[in-house]
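name: query_chain
kind: protein
chains: 1
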Amino acid sequence: MSYQDSLMVKQLFFSALREKTIENYKLATEMFERIVQTDPSNDASLYELANLKRQQNDYTGAQPLLEQAVSINKDNEWYWASLADTYEKTNTIDKLENVFNQLIRLNPDKSEYYFDKANAYTILKRYDDALKVYDELEKKDGTSDDILANRQKIFLKQGKVDQAATDLEKQIAANPNEIRYYLALGEIYNSNGFTDKALKILLQAEKLDPRNGMVHFALADIYRGKKNNEASFNELTLGFAIPDVSIDQKVNIISGYFPKFPEANAKASALELSRILTVAHPSDARAYAIYGDMLLQNAKYKEARPVLKKSMQLNDQVYNVQEQLVRLELGDNDLDAAIKDGENALSLFPNQAWMNYLVGVAWAQKKDNGKAVGYLKNATSLELQDKELLSLSFSLLGDCYHELKNIKASDESYEKALTYNPDNAFTLNNYAYYLSLRNEQLEKAAQMSARSNELQPNTASFEDTYAWILFMQKKYPQAKTWMEKALAHDKDNSSVKYEHYGDILFFVGDIDGAVTNWKKAKSFGGKTPALDRKINEKKYSE
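structure:
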């Protein structure tokens, strides 16, 4: 090049570097391309241009640029390293041998290049060549676990189990207290069908270090393979009790039981292991979370609640734990606790629709329907896809609006609930009952009530609703039949049901039976003036 061209190239190169630094990659690429056009032997620009292409995952485009760069400058380690990575990305494995030879020539003390070269040979199934590289590296750096492990993989790929085992036996002889070599040898024996040899070597390791959890887990695998489930589970319990073993590994073991649920033994085993987890890791919220979950899986709801509470106290950033806790509190009818913990959860996770619904349920059960409506409306606005949640939320909104005397909003909510789940038996029953109380749309109410009884037969409250609607339609014989079903299934001696039955009997002409049931209603807590008039006057009264 002329002096002017050389000066222009230098200025353009530094300008291109500046554009690259400020992430103006398009202009930088154009500048480096101009340099290469002007000076095809400019290896630095070829390298920079290739790296810009690599940044955009265009390894195919980068490859010839790097090949040209190393042909111009054979002694630049960065060029060869980038070319090695590019060959790996383009799966051009057969060209890696020369690249790593060059890298080792330039930096013979960098062990990584030897490992990469051996790995390339392994991918190409040139196993003996790979072993020679490891021998060379071992002479240079001495024996290491990485060299040993990689050599084991090659021996096993070659089917040379004895040779793989011999290597490890040498390590055990030289380092008799290093348990990791016993574990590696046990794994080789076990995975290749020599379970008795695996058991023998692992029992030796257990004697040397009975507090090594990995040995117990390895023994558990051996015993499980031998169908000795009791011995296998015993080893697991020993391993779980050791705090030094990672809790993540223990959680993975417990998760392995999940596909076997609902088998009772699997549930019981997972439950016991998760209990031990809380003893070994008393400050880890995950231990209590999984123990609480296992208690739930085993239907031990009372025991699960304080465990989940402990998990939440240790870490309040796990939403699922908080939802499980609030559900249990609602199940225990501990409404104050459900509201306190639910509202605390919403302060951390305000956009959780289910939690808004659960808090709404708690307020509704405390008869504070105004507060319940607020949370339920939040639930419906936050969730647009979960039909179950939308159905439940709108159904409860219907109940709350009814209590608040907002009949229009109540009916609209029930209608919306049924669009999401037309077979929600409770929605059908409640909507039908409230229509009957207002003596409105009785035919529609009857259809909904009949359907609720099809969906959930032998439910006293549903049968009572249907009987009452039939009564309002003046279908007294049918009403009598359904009310008798309701009383047969009623476990609470409901005063309302006995009063309804008395009303029906009056209209079928059984005056004595009507009075008897009105008196029963009064004895079971009925206190309305209308009930007293019915008893005193021996006739039906609104």
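note: DSSP finds 31 helices and no strands in the chain.
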